[in-house]
Write a structure and sequence with these properties.
The protein has no helices and five strands. InterPro entries: GPKOW_KOW2, Rib_uL2_dom2, Spp2-like.
């Protein structure tokens, strides 16, 4: 079982742990604390933004060239 932790800092790195983009790394651009969602830009899809539930992302502390 994995406990997801959403980073508190702006533009901190995250990894997607659920869904189609699972395993992708990106950055939080915007948060919706009321709906527990974040707008994320993934490194592999620079032109596209994803709105993901907090449970689908976690704080990423690995290598930045992932």
């Amino acid at each position: 079982m994995l406990e997801t932790i959403v980073p508190k800092g702006e533009h901190d790195a995250v990894m997607v742990v659920l869904g189609e983009q699972r395993g992708q790394v990106g950055r939080i651009l915007q948060r919706d604390k009321n709906k527990c969602r974040a707008m994320v830009q993934l490194d592999r899809y620079e032109e596209k933004l994803f709105t993901l539930d907090y449970d689908s992302i976690c704080y990423y502390v690995g290598a930045s060239d992932h």
